Structure formats: structure tokens, C-alpha cells
Amino acid sequence: MYACCAAGRWWAVAQTHYGNGMTSEAPKTETKPKPNSATLAFRQLGAAAKANDRSEQFAAIARMIKDSQGRQPSVVVVGEMNRGKSTLINAILGAPGTSPVGPTETTGLSVSYVPESENFPFGQAELEYASEPRLRRIPAEELPQWVRIDSPTLLDAEEPPLQASRAVKKSPLGRVTIVDTPGSGGLSEAYVMRAIARAQDASVLLMVTDAAGRITKPALEFLVHCSTMVESVVLAVTKIDLYRGHWQAVLEENRQVLAARDPRLANIPIIPVSGAWGERAAAEPDEARRRKLYGSSNVHELIRALRAPLERGSKLPTLNALRQGIAMLEKPLIQLETEREALGGIVEKHDNLLAVRDHREKLLRTFEDSKYDWNAQVDRVRVELTAANARLSREFGAHWKDRLQKYGAGISEKQSVALMNEMAADIEVQVGRALRGIVQRGTSLLSELYAAAGMDPQQGLLQEVERRALEADAGPRGGLDRGTASIDPRMMVSGVLMGSGIGGMLTAITSVVFMPVIGVAVMGSFSIILARRQAKRQSVMQTANDATIELRETLDRAVRGVLGVVSTDARKVFDRDLRQSVTDAKTELARLESAKRASESERERRLAQIDPKIEQIESAMAAAHDEILRLTDRASAPGP
Questions:
Q1: Does 133 sit behind a cis peptide bond, omega within 30 degrees of 0 on the bond before it?
Q2: Where in this chain does the record put each Dynamin N-terminal domain (predicted)?
């Protein structure tokens, strides 16, 4: 009860600093909300598409909008160990203790803090596994024992989870998912790339360093590399409460370092903040003290800096749909305008139409001829993609072999959990990145083949290419084998012999007869510990080898599936489309020629049908264009 009241008071304090947030919810009423201007513009495009036989293309764009609904934008938080990352997340959420904090390595896997919903209510958490059932619910209070790297529950689990989620109350950022990447094992690109890829929408990278000194070289290089994968970056300099005398100098030094290293980072927001004060403010019962703490923490300024790119990103699906809608109507508009010109006696594109018709008729006659060798182009791309898959697999295997060889003395149980989780994230990132490349090359090949006939591939074919690639990724995959290799008995025997020898030497020196027994016990125990660490290392190395093979098999399945679409399904569809395209070109030419020969009354009748259609298309395109300008102007404006 107290926690709920404190959170409510903290929310009221937060409102005084930056308003209601970008996704504040209106009170529920019985009346249906009026559609916004973007929806109205999109409906105009739909009406014009339907009137000009473009319903199927418009439906594909509408599905894109529908698929993007419900996706929550995300803030991916990264930072080196002991920089105040988890404390800062608690301050942003206004929920002390939600993210585990500590002076040493804390989190062993990524945790996503997701706004509560009907399907994921507050008080629940979810663990993701490689095996079925992949998602398993637990009470939120049990989550720390599954994510803390020193937790016996995590270390002793037969199958540790890959990552976790926790339902939280809506924060001042609105309905935004905050992803806390692991603080164990240093900065990991794999965790960040996986979080960004899964977000699918409006991701912001929040890099956390502290005011003890300027950003470290490893953190700087990590930020430079990862910033190329996201639209926006914000740097938070924490612990200004501990370094009150010189955090301003550190802030300015960080800006100079970023600008010198990469011009893209010269003007990113750099926000000084105290996560500790922000977290204390959320739990403070005294209103005056709470306001003072929250104002001094500067958390509100950090939230303001995060909201601006999140707003821009949230508009991208709408902007893309409006742009695609405009492009969809360009072809029927040209056709109508050409016919109107013909009815007026002026036809500029008549010769172009004849050339298109002749070209397509020639292709139709030679489609089965060896001069137009469809299979040769498919085979060329198959060789190209297979070589790329082999190269990626080799690089993945070499990377993990090098990583594990650095652990000459073996690895501990904690290190094993951290490495295995990072490897799982790395596999997911590499597979996703490669699949996107395979899909892009497959659709590019389709476009090239169709372009030779002056056509564009059907949307259904492009979607089938993507479906086949995803189907390959959903193929047989058993997850990473987290078993342990057997202990090498030679190492234990060696330890026993060494202990016996040392004990014998000490007996000769000290005349204590039990020294050999003590030596055997000590060295034997040390040998067992070392043998276990070496066994763990060998087990993880074997897992990396297996993962390398699985990575190659998955990508090769994707290539076979994608090129199967091109060489079979698409070829049949292309033949049909080509015949239809020739027919359409002939029909269009006949209509233009008929327009030139039409009587005055016939021309007036046909113009009366064409002019409203042209006006409808132009009006819809203009409305969509104005809405694009409105959204982009608002998106580029600074936050309130």
C-alpha cells in the first residue's frame, strides 16, 4: 500500500517537470474517438486505390500499419559495471528496487521492463528459454534469483533462461519498454543488437557512464560501433551527487571526446543525472523533500531527452504507409492523365507505350529460350549467398574460439552462465542479420528479373521470400547444450602426486609425519577445482563449435527456401504476369487510339468519368503529402 502511494506521489512530482508524457492515456468514455488527420489522409488514399483497382496493393500497406500497432518503443540501456545503470533504471521507472543493484557484477541476462497489460499484469515476470515451453511465468519477486549472476538458483539451474521480462507500472516515459542489458562480463554488443532487433520500433540507445572521469576507451569504442545500428543515442553521466565539484568538467570533456572520435556523436544529448537521488525521490513520503530530491536528480531532463527520439520513431510506420500510398497511386494517375491527353488530341507517351509493348512481346516469345536464362542468375546468387554463409560461420567460430582461449585457467560457473547467455544472444543476432541479407538479395534478384520486362514483382512474392527465410530460422533448433564436460582424471592424479611430493619435502624439513597427507589433500582439492574449471571451458568451447555448425545449417536452409521461391513460384507467376502485362499494354494502346478517334460527345462523356478520378487521386496524394510534412515538422521540433 505504501509503495503504491509513494509511486503515485512520485508520478505527480514528475508531471510538474515535463507534463503528461508522449503517450498519456485519455479517460475512457463511451463515445468513439474521432480519427486523427493521418488516419483521414490514409482513408483518402484507400478510397482512391479502390476506385482505381488498387485495393490489393492498399490492403498490403494497411497490413503493414496493423502489424506495427501494439509494438512498444524501447530504450536499450548499456554501460560498464558499477556505473549506476540499474539504479538509474529504477529512477526512470519511479520504482525503487525493481532492477537489482549492487557494488559488483549483478545481472547475468537481459531484463526488459514492460508496461503492464491485460496479458502481462503487474506483479508478474517472464523467463525465456531455448526449449519448450519457451516463455514461463513467475512472480516478479522471484525474478532477482534468476537474473543475479551470483544466485544459486541461476547457477544450479539445469537450463538457465536466456533473458527475462517484468511487468511494471507505466513510467513518465509512457508505454515504453526499458531493456537492461547485463552488467556481467563487460559490454556486450550481442545483447544490445538482440534488444534492438527485437524492439522493431523506435529504439533509443542509452549509454550510462559516471562522473568519476571521462568515458573509458572500451565504452567509447562500443558506443561508436553500436550507434550505427540505432536511430538515436543519449549519454547519461550518473553519480553527480557523489562528484558535485567536477561533474561539469567531465561532461564537457566527454562531449569533446565524442566529437573527436566520431562526428555523428558530436551533438547527442549528454545528461548529468543522479539515479540515487531519483530513486530516493520515488520512495520519499515527504512531499517537499521528494520534490527537492527529484529536481536535483535531473531525471526529468533525461526523460525529456529520451522522449524526443521516441516520438520521432513512433511516427515512422505512419510516414512509411503514407509514402507508399502516394507511390501506389502514381501509376494509375499517369494512365488517367495520358488518356485525358489523348482525348484532347495530345499524346506524348504513345511512342513509349509502343516500345514497352514490343519489348514485352519479344520477352514473351523468348521466355523459354536460353538467351533469357533464369536459372543461371539464380545459381549465381546461390553461390554468392552460400559463400557469405560460410564466411560468417567461420568468423563466428573464430571469434568464440579466441574468446575462450583467453581463459587459460578455465572458467567458473558464473562465467559459464554469462558466456552461454551471450553466445545465445550472438547467435540470434548473427542469424537475424544474415537472414535480412538473404531476404534482401532474394527480393533484389526478383526485382532484377522483373525489371528486364519493365515490371515490378508482386507483393505476395516478396512476402513469400521473407516467409521462407523465417521458416528456415524456425527449423530444428535445440538451443545451446549447457551440460558440462567430464573432469580429466589425469589432472587430479597429477595434483595428488604433486601434493605427495611437496608433503615429503616438508616432512624432511619439519619432521612432521602428516605433511604428505596434508599436501595430498590441499593439492588434490586445488586440482579438482582447476579440473572443473577446465571442464567448464571445454564444455563451452564444444557448445561454440556446435553453434557454429547450427548457424551454417540455418542460413543454408534459408538460402534454399528463398531461392526456391525465385526459381519455382516466381518463375510461374512471372510467366503469367508477363502475358498479362502484354495484354494490358495492348489494351492501354487500344484505349488511347480509341480516344484519338472518339467523337466530340464520346470525348465529353469519357472526360466526365476521368476528371473526377484524377481529382480524387490528386486530392488524396496532396492530403497524404501535407500529413507527411506535418508529422516530420513536429518530429523535428524540440521536445516540450
A1: yes
A2: 75-237
| 19 located within any domain | no
Q: Is residue 29 part of a domain?
A: no
Q: Is residue 358 domain-shared with residue 406, that is, in the same domain?
A: yes
- Cell digits for 438? 538473404
The CA-CA-CA angle for residues 166, 275, 112, to 5°, reads 20
Q: Which residue has the higher pLDDT, 582 or 625?
A: 625
Q: Is residue 341 part of a domain?
A: no
Residue type, 524: G
What whole-number distance in Å separates Cα of residue 83 and Cα of residue 109?
17
pLDDT at 71: 65
pLDDT in tens, 363-403: 656 555 434 567 888 888 999 999 999 999 999 999 888 88
In this predicted structure, what is the pLDDT of residue 158?
80
In DSSP terms, which residues pair with 76 in a beta bridge? 179, 205
253 and 155, same structural domain? yes
Query: Left if phi > 0, otherwise alpha if psi is -120 to 50, otherwise beta: which for 7?
Result: alpha
Confidence of residue 525 (pLDDT cuts 50, 70, 90): low
Residues 280 and 385 in one domain: no
Q: Based on the domain organization, do 152 and 237 belong to the same domain? A: yes
The helix (run of H) or strand (run of E) holding residue 124 is strand 124-128
Beta-carbon contacts of 34 under 8 Å, excluding residues fewer than 6 positions away, are: none
Residue 345 lies in a domain: no
Q: What angle (nearest 5°) sits at the alpha carbon of residue 380, between those of residues 378 and 386?
A: 100
Pairing state between β 124-128 and 163-168? antiparallel
The domain boundary, picked from 263, 291, 314, lies at 314
Tell me how many domains the chain contains: 2
Please state, in angstroms and rounded to a whole number, the distance separating the CA atoms of residues 185 and 164.
Answer: 18
Output the DSSP codes for 559-583: HHHHHHIIIIIHHHHHHHHHHHHHH
Nearest Cα to Cα of residue 265 among 255, 274, 273, 251: 255
Domain with 167 in it: 74-314
Lowest average pLDDT, out of 91-100, 146-155, 590-599, goes to 590-599
Residue type at 139 in one-letter notation? P
CA 292 to each of CA 14, 97, 285, 286, 296: distance values in angstroms, whole numbers, following the listed order? 12, 21, 12, 10, 6
* Helix/strand/coil for 201: coil
